[in-house]
């Protein structure tokens, strides 16, 4: 949590507004697939003020940043020169491996990071942009609402210092579990791709 801690310490000293600015930047770059643990930062920021209005501001900041980062990748995916054909082909092949092949996977991805470069996937799959961004915002709002509600509950059950640690560890556990699931899904895709290549080579030799 060193990156999260450094960002939190840097922006917290300037007040609540700058904490939200820091959160926006972390979530934005995380949406472009630079893992930075924004969920942990959001919990840390929320622990400074458990008011409902503060929670709403945090969630609004998160959803805006997620849509912004995903939209940037969408622009990259739509531009033929910014996304190489080889990467585009691999992404389309990966998409064909998924059970859900329409915009609904965008919502699932908010909880389990199955699709890397989500915005680019939306572009190359020709999914509806507005619907996809709405699902990004909805999924992010639900996910962070659950995390902040959990954190608030822990603050009522435990002393402040203990509550924050329990909240962070719980969120970290959820992130690790979803990350492990996504990792094995990608490994399964890689095995499937190797098997297809091997089968094609065997046919060529026959």
Sum this structure up briefly.
This protein has nine helices and no strands. The chain is mainly α and 206 residues long.
Helix-strand sequence: HHHHHHHHH
Number of helices: 9
Binned strand content = under 5%
Over all CA atoms, what is the radius of gyration?
Answer: 19 Å
Low-confidence stretches: 197-202
Helix and strand composition category: mainly alpha
Shape: elongated
Query: Overall mean pLDDT score?
Result: 80
The biggest sheet, with number of strands, parallel, antiparallel or mixed sense and barrel status, is:
none
Count the strands? Answer: 0
Number of domains: 1
Roughly how many Å apart are the termini?
54 Å
Question: Helicity range of the residues?
Answer: over 70%
Features:
206 residues, mainly alpha, 80% helix
Describe the structure in your own words.
The chain is mainly α. The protein contains nine helices and no strands. Helix 8 packs antiparallel against helix 9. The chain starts with a helix and ends with a helix. About 30% of the residues are buried.
What topology emerges from the helices and strands here?
Layout: H1 2-12, H2 16-31, H3 38-46, H4 52-78, H5 85-97, H6 104-109, H7 118-124, H8 129-157, H9 160-205
